[in-house]
Amino acid sequence: MRKYQFPEGFLWGGATAANQIEGGFYEGNKGLNIADVLPGGKERYKILMNPGFDFKIHRDQYYYPNHEAIDFYHRYKEDIGFFAEMGFKAFRMSIAWTRIFPNGDELEANEEGLAFYDGVFDELHKHGIQPVVTLSHYEMPLHLVKEYGGWRNRQVVTFFERYVKAIFNRYKNKVKFWMTFNEINSSLVMPIQGLGFSIQKEEDKYQPTFQAYHHQFVASSIAVKACHEIIPNSKIGCMILFAPVYSFDCNPENVMYALQEEQLFNYFCADVQVRGEYPSFIKRYFKEHHIELEIQEGDLELIKEGTVDYIGFSYYMSRTEKKVKTDAESAQGNLIGGIRNPFLKASDWGWEIDPEGLRISLNKLYDRYQKPLFVVENGLGAYDKVEEDGTINDTYRIDYLRDHIKAMSEAIEDGVELIGYTSWGCIDMVSMSTGEFSKRYGFIYVDKHDDGSGSLKRMRKKSFFWYKDVIATNGERL
Ligand code: BG6
């Protein structure tokens, strides 16, 4: 049997985000964030994709799954125990900004929030697990959204700076791996969660979106510089949603169209954060969409100085593009659109499954940037069934992960520098795009359902034992 090779010290583990696991949405003086006002069910995806969201809670109409989530807030020791049993080397999580600065614009950090993450990091270290922390994962303080207009407002950069310096200072001896903004490029299609504002009309989106991006790039560079100063041995990365774009056919017009889509979606943010410059292709795009950025003196120098150490990225799917497409061809459910790829199968939610696309992504990113890469999200959202004897036989998840891990090993042989793999949703949690619990990714089943019912009991799935073995053999036995 073929043995797959991974480097010594490869960071095997799992990934989560505070808003999707913690719950305790009013505990420890936490303030409300964007995820707290997103309802569960089909409504959520419509909100994320369409203009005009009001950022209010309508309890009479909807259930809000992130409020309790899977109660990691109270059960983190038990959950980390499961991760340790699987042999995790790394655990990716985010800090909820609103636990540290409940409204976002306070001058002093909230001690209860800081103490909570001290507890989590101490527990991880007790088991030899390295925390990998995202500074902002779709959970901006709601107050900054409502009172300041989200990232459109330059003042938010100052609030973010205060937040990141507070946590770097507090956790400087506990966290070495950091990432700035989760899937920063996703705001090009879903601005609400990442940029903290809802576009009112489709045609008005360009100027505010790219101005908000400029503020995030400045904030990201401030964070990178502060991280290096405060924690000298730290590594801080960007985090991109990477979905390689394929041309539907060899018609040069389609090839060019696919290239442009790839430049804008996959490379624009990464170019700024990794190379420290706005890429040349974006200048034409700005001109054609009448975008004129307000850039303050010193911003471009700061962006140049604050480049990231590694590239973290999520990989779930590829995307196939054609210049002129019909509705019938569209890849329904594929998170970021495109047309249906006839060579690929899709998940129950319509996300196209393409392991070779991960190898392609790793090669593309490494060719372009020559920086260490870290796959910080990848996984299969699926319906799981608990059998009468209590087993959960998620062989489909094992197949999915095995194929993607093989693809990573091929990319390493291709010469790519890959430092780790934290599969998404190592424990079942609230889905980001649909707010469902039934879209499960975990190795650990959580008894919690779309209507909010469930005991929150944790159970090991078949994939739990499989992944444990993968880690124990450093990926040799898949
Ligand atoms: C990524 C996000 O886009 O995909 C996660 O960073 C999210 O927050 C994950 O949960 C899977 O998406 P979903 O919608 O299936 O939860």
Question: In words, what does this structure look like?
Answer:
Keywords: Glycosidase, Hydrolase. It comes from Neobacillus ginsengisoli. This is 6-phospho-beta-glucosidase. The chain has 478 residues and is an alpha/beta fold. It has a single domain, classed as TIM Barrel. The longest helix is centred in the middle third of the chain and has 25 residues. Strand 9 and strand 10 form a beta hairpin. It is globular. The strands form four sheets. Strands 1-2-3-4-5-7-11-12 form an eight-stranded parallel β-barrel, surrounded by five helices. A two-stranded parallel ribbon has the order 6-8. Strands 9-10 form a two-stranded antiparallel sheet. The mean pLDDT is 96. The protein binds 6-O-phosphono-beta-D-glucopyranose. The site of 6-O-phosphono-beta-D-glucopyranose has 14 residues, from loops. 6-O-phosphono-beta-D-glucopyranose (BG6) binds next to loops.
Question: Summary?
Answer:
By secondary structure, the protein is an alpha/beta fold. It has 15 helices and 14 strands.
